[in-house]
Amino acid sequence: MAAGGNRRETFAAGPYPGRVSELGLDSAPVATGQALTDQAHPELDLWRTLPAKQQPNWPDQAALRGAYAELSALPPLVIAPEVRSLTERLADVARGEAFLLQGGDCAETFAANTANNIRDKVKTLLQMAVVLTYGASTPVVKVARIAGQYAKPRSADIETSTGLPSYRGDAVNGLEATLAARLPDPYRMVSAYHHSAAALNLIRAFATGGFSSLSQVHEWNKAFVRDSAAGRRYELMATDIERALAFMAACGIDLDRTSELGGVELYTSHEGLLLDYERALTRVEESTGQVCDLSAHMIWIGERTRDLDGAHMEFLSRVTNPIGCKIGPKASPDEVLAIAERINPEHIPGRLTLISRMGTGRVRDALPAVVEKVNAAGHPVVWACDPMHGNTRDVGGVKTRHFDDVLDEVLGFFEVHKDLGTHPGGLHIELTGEDVTECLGGGQEIGEADLGGRYETACDPRLNTSQALELAFLVAEMLQATRSRRAQAHTE
Ligand SMILES: O=C[C@H](O)[C@H](O)COP(=O)(O)O
Ligand SMILES: C=C(OP(=O)(O)O)C(=O)O
Ligand SMILES: [Mn+2]
């Protein structure tokens, strides 16, 4: 590929108007902190020559270069061996030997990046994971949307209600409804890095301390089942889990030791939207030469930026992290196969997770052809279901989702995989550990009139703790059914 030649071309689109050379991308040595291009790895900057959707219009290009230089010099947030171990875990999912649980905020904010919020989110995710582990009788790979989910793609550049530029995540601009707050500031990417580092520090402590031991997480689940009307429906399964744990303890398994490694494995993820941020935190491992985006373990490409000839696909195809790609109802089977070929030409199991987000009305008719096509080509993908983004609705100007729609899309996803004999590999959920009132329904029967109570999201409506746990219990039942069907087929 004529990398050098391409970089001198005029940008077709994207955040940098003018020629690359005018920005000093191809001349200044990296060490000065002025360059945006790594002279040793020009292929990692090829994306700059392609149209990049959903990038902020940074008003100050010098500030962008400054922020980029600062980020490039900072230590990575995660390390390459962790990234590789997540790929291995996801390979287990692709083989049908594990289940993926990915969840967290739609948009993290700096203000909500507090110890309690982080604790409660991690707690909810771990509680869901224990229930799902029981349902699936396989390990659950836990990946949080946390410590970096600070950039948002938006439908409109201008917010209708205020006439202001849309909020694009705390890494870009502020949520406050003033023109000054909504102006993109590249140094917010540096703040996002520091907030991510602080969150990760706490998450790592939670993961290794007694906080996340199996018996502790089960105690929380017992409290949910005992103390809430929504939880009481799941008493039977909670009792079964209790029995299973008692059996393990009787066998001498220490439930307070969270794993052989002495800690629960919790990985981080976010949408790889801001390519300058992702590029600045992409590093080449000295010992292996492996290129990793060390801003998180897993990075996903959104529904709005997954164009095959776009900058996101170009850049993220070059990092070796596990990559997710959102697949909406309009994606054709050929297009999805092309995405698989592009991201994972070597068919590495665990490298690619296809996250369908079709909507409850479409999943049953749109997903089968996609799964069949990718499967027939022998791609070892993880099939995950995001039952949130295809089910957003407007109720009196408030964005919400109904629990029944969320559940029905998951049900449809399981039905499709059952019919095709493929593994319904995972769930991708927007959730919080707080008792918010952003999604309708669930055992608490949140109604339209309740939405105003605690509607706190900076972007999309999230399941609250109770709704998230209910979903886990219901999906665990679906997984149990899948398991007994498999066992039956085995004996026939
Ligand atoms: O999280 C996903 C998208 O950023 C979000 O759904 C876009 O929302 P919008 O349609 O309000 O811009
Ligand atoms: C933007 C998101 O989803 P999608 O790309 O599927 O719309 C998201 O996951 O927050
Ligand atoms: Mn969202």
Helix coverage percent of residues? Answer: 40-55%
The CATH architecture comes to Alpha-Beta Barrel
Q: Low-confidence parts, pLDDT < 50 over ≥5 residues?
A: 1-34
Hetero compounds: erythose-4-phosphate, phosphoenolpyruvate, manganese (II) ion
The total count of strands amounts to 12
Average pLDDT, rounded to a whole number, is 90
Shape: globular
| Side-by-side strand order of the widest sheet | 1-2-3-6-7-8-9-12
Biggest sheet record: 8 strands, parallel, barrel
For the terminal residues, how far apart are their CA atoms? Answer: 54 Å
Total helices: the number is: 15
Give the CATH H-level superfamily. Answer: Aldolase class I
Indicate how many domains the architecture comprises: 1
Q: Any idea of the CATH topology?
A: TIM Barrel
Class by helix and strand content? alpha/beta
CATH class: Alpha Beta
Q: Rg from C-alpha positions?
A: 22 Å
How is the secondary structure organized here?
Blueprint: H1 3-7, H2 61-73, H3 80-94, E1 99-104, H4 115-136, E2 140-145, H5 179-182, H6 187-208, H7 214-227, H8 229-232, H9 235-250, E3 266-271, H10 275-280, E4 282-284, E5 291-293, E6 298-301, H11 311-316, E7 323-327, H12 333-343, E8 352-356, H13 363-376, E9 382-385, E10 393-395, E11 398-400, H14 403-420, E12 426-430, H15 465-491
Parallel strand pairs: 1-2, 1-12, 2-3, 3-6, 6-7, 7-8, 8-9, 9-12
Antiparallel strand pairs: 4-5, 10-11
Helix pairs in contact: 2-6, 4-6, 4-7, 4-15, 7-9, 12-13, 13-14, 14-15
Residues 106, 152-155, 389, 459-460 line the site of erythose-4-phosphate.
